[in-house]
Amino acid sequence: MLAVHNVRYDDAFAEPMTGRVGTFTVTPSPISMTAPAGSSGSVPVTVLSTFGLAGLSAMAFGASEPQHLTGQTIFQDDPGDPSTSSWVGEYNIAHAGIFDIFLHVGSNDLDLYILYDSNNDGVPDWDTERIASSTASAGIDEHIQFVLPQDGRYWVAVHGWAVTPSPSFFDIDTTMVDGFNLSISGVPTGPILAGTPVTLNLDYNLAGLAPGTYLGVVFTGPQEAPTSVQVSVEIVVT
Ligand SMILES: [Ca+2]
Ligand SMILES: [Ca+2]
Questions:
Q1: Which of 123, 147, 158, 181 has the lowest CB atom count within 10 Å?
Q2: Beta bridge partners of 172
Q3: How far is the CA of 78 from the centre of ligand 1 (A)?
Q4: pLDDT tens-place string over residues 165-200
């Protein structure tokens, strides 16, 4: 099976995937909903596979608000030592579908490092807890995305590899699609025949969310490839 899917959070753009052996489509995609603060309910989501499935997986995460930080200060750090990163943000993740970090570098050469507090001591250990990096050339933005990130404490470090003048300023977008406001029900157990549409419920409970616009995500796919298809969810709480 071949599964391909595009999702862009800022523009809420997605398209159904196509593979040579068949298609697995989700309708609607993306999912948009508007509901009053404190309400709960359900939105139907239809999955259609042109190939038979041994079983279907579907799960939902959110709702959360993306973070856009502007005018952040960066200095010329020691280029040979990322642990000198002069900007570090700490993020605690629980039940997240996506953790996406986009660094707008401007004209400087800034690099992005992610650490995970695997020993849970509240201290970033650069020798043992570095889990990802993005280190493109000067003027090229840096991007890292995790799907189904493990719960726990993360650090996002911005390393000033070549910064002129020092200090300079940058923007960073952090999209953590986490939370327990969304869930999926109605997933059938057992095999699904090719070409048989399955309608699932995307259940929402907006308790605790102030009016605003929030993000969620639905992952679905064959049970052996549960994150094959990502569908972005936009929730407008009124
Ligand atoms: Ca640690
Ligand atoms: Ca860079």
A1: 123
A2: 69, 103
A3: 22
A4: 999 999 999 999 999 999 999 999 999 999 999 999
